[in-house]
Design a protein that fits this description.
The complex is a heterodimer of chains A (106) and B (116). With 106 residues, chain A is mostly beta strands. Chain A contains no helices and 11 strands. In chain A, strands 2, 4, 5, 9, 10 and 11 form a 6-stranded mixed sheet that branches. A 5-stranded antiparallel sheet of chain A has the order 1-3-8-7-6, with no helix packed on it. Chain A is globular, with a radius of gyration of 13 Å. In chain B, strands 2, 4, 5, 6, 9, 10 and 11 form a 7-stranded mixed sheet that branches. Classes of the chains: A mainly beta (106), B mainly beta (116).
Chain lengths: 106, 116
């Protein structure tokens, strides 16, 4: 099956810093999504991005399907950005990566 | 609020018991997915239903079963529970087309199952 690898596994930032999270996948996929799981456990869909670039406020994402990777950019990080960021890809069953655990310090 | 409703939010039960988790998808979504999240296994895909029919199966144990009803709500049944079944169980829904291409997933708030 498809393998999904996310890096880094853990990230600590000072409030206001920028960061880039990476997702590599091992095979062609039909779509790719980024999720944020907040400290209360809620999973929020950030981007549905099978290819190209999208932006939503301080967050943006880029997927290069031909090279099998996606990047999530967080700019001017805030404490509320803390949590786990998951990349999920779909060949037929949505498969999640192990996540990047982000902690933003005030 | 994602529009996906899961009940109950918390469930505490004993080994050997059987429980049923319920999920109502967003209005208009035909696909329902079940996921298990545990500390050591991460988010694991269990099963997907599309418009009442099983569409895809993941790492779902034989002790677990699911179904999607005509009104599109879904239930996940867990039987002969073991300590290791303790986890957060998520339901998600999407508007998926008939050949299984999945669109944006929307997750419920989950059911925290504790098996004692």
């Amino acid at each position: 099956g498809i393998q999904v690898e996310q890096s880094p596994p853990d990230l600590i930032l000072q409030e206001g810093a920028n960061s880039t999270l990476r997702c590599n996948f091992s095979d062609s996929v039909n779509n790719l999504q980024w999720f944020h799981q907040n400290p209360w456990g809620q999973l929020i869909n950030l981007f549905y991005i099978p290819s190209g670039t999208k932006q939503n406020g301080r967050l943006s994402a880029t997927t290069v399907a031909t090279e099998r990777y996606s990047l999530l950019y967080i700019s001017s990080s805030q404490t509320t950005d803390s949590g786990v960021y998951f990349c999920a890809v779909d060949g037929f069953k949505t498969i999640f990566g192990a996540g990047t655990r982000l902690f933003v310090k005030a | 609020d994602s529009g996906v409703t899961q009940t109950p939010k918390h469930l505490i039960t004993a080994t050997g018991q059987r429980v049923t988790l319920r999920c109502s998808p967003r209005s208009g979504d035909l696909s329902v997915y079940w996921y298990q999240q545990s500390l050591d296994q991460g988010l694991q895909f269990l099963i997907q239903y599309y418009n009442g029919e099983e569409r895809a199966k993941g790492n779902i144990l034989e002790r677990f079963s699911a179904q999607q009803f005509p009104d599109l709500h879904s239930e996940l049944n867990l039987s002969s529970l073991e300590l290791g079944d303790s986890a957060l169980y998520f339901c998600a829904s999407s508007v998926a087309d008939a050949i299984g291409l999945n669109e944006k997933l929307f997750f419920g708030s989950g059911t925290q199952l504790s098996v004692l």
